[in-house]
């Protein structure tokens, strides 16, 4: 087995770790897949734990975001430090997002992939990531609908990446970014349907 393939498998497996599910079970003793939206992401972690009266539910949701982001960021940075080719790094990033969204530990179900995507993007295009994350949180604070905020952040990143780096350094293509954005939008289809019918729940 080649070293590159090993790195791909590791990236997918690390991305598959369901941080939100584990945290909610440890802190609140609940299975967030069976409550709220059923998602393992930070928004549902906050909603479910808050509904159970768990203190600091918002901080725990924030911790979930950070851990999900680190799943994408840290393996890439380690591989970058080890001297792996940029194409290998981008492939690892895509696989980390796939792992989060289609986790091997959850029968290939998973979260929406937003935090992990930004963790991946931060390893390659930090300035674009900072601006896009600011838009993500800004829209979320103003509109208070998580799905709109998440999709706004992803769209913003795609646009800003073209403005700052029309040719992505080392690979000269935006293909990995488009793949990640497609996965995130695909996982948000239920949310998009609820938005169309004005049934999407706000985050308090």
From TrEMBL:
The chain crosses the membrane at residues 6-27, 88-106, 118-139, 145-164, 171-189. The keyword Transcription regulation does not apply. The keyword Transmembrane helix applies. GO terms for cellular component: plasma membrane. Its EC number is 2.3.1.275. It is a multi-pass membrane protein. GO terms for biological process: phospholipid biosynthetic process. Its main location: membrane. It is found in: Cell membrane. InterPro entries: G3P_acylTferase_PlsY (IPR003811). Probably interacts with PlsX. Catalyzes the transfer of an acyl group from acyl-phosphate (acyl-PO(4)) to glycerol-3-phosphate (G3P) to form lysophosphatidic acid (LPA). This enzyme utilizes acyl-phosphate as fatty acyl donor, but not acyl-CoA or acyl-ACP. Belongs to the PlsY family. This is Glycerol-3-phosphate acyltransferase. The lineage of its organism: Bacteria, Pseudomonadati, Campylobacterota, Epsilonproteobacteria, Campylobacterales.
């Amino acid at each position: 087995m080649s070293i590159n393939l090993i790195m791909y498998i590791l990236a997918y497996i690390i991305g598959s770790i369901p941080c939100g599910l584990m945290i909610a079970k440890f802190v609140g003793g609940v299975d967030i897949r069976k409550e709220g939206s059923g998602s393992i992401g930070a928004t549902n972690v906050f909603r479910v734990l808050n509904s159970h009266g768990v203190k600091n539910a918002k901080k725990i949701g924030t911790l979930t975001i950070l851990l999900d982001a680190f799943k994408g960021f840290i393996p890439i940075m380690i591989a970058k430090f080890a001297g792996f080719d940029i194409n290998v790094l981008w492939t690892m990033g895509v696989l980390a997002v796939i792992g989060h969204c289609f986790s091997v530990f959850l029968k290939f179900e998973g979260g929406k992939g937003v935090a992990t995507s930004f963790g991946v993007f931060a390893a390659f295009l930090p300035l674009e990531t900072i601006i896009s994350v600011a838009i993500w949180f800004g829209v979320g604070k103003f509109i208070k609908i998580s799905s709109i905020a998440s999709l706004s952040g992803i769209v913003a990143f795609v646009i800003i990446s073209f403005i700052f780096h029309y040719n992505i350094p080392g690979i000269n293509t935006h293909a990995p970014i488009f793949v990640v954005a497609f996965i995130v939008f695909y996982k948000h289809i239920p949310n998009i349907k609820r938005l169309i019918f004005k049934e999407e729940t706000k985050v308090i």
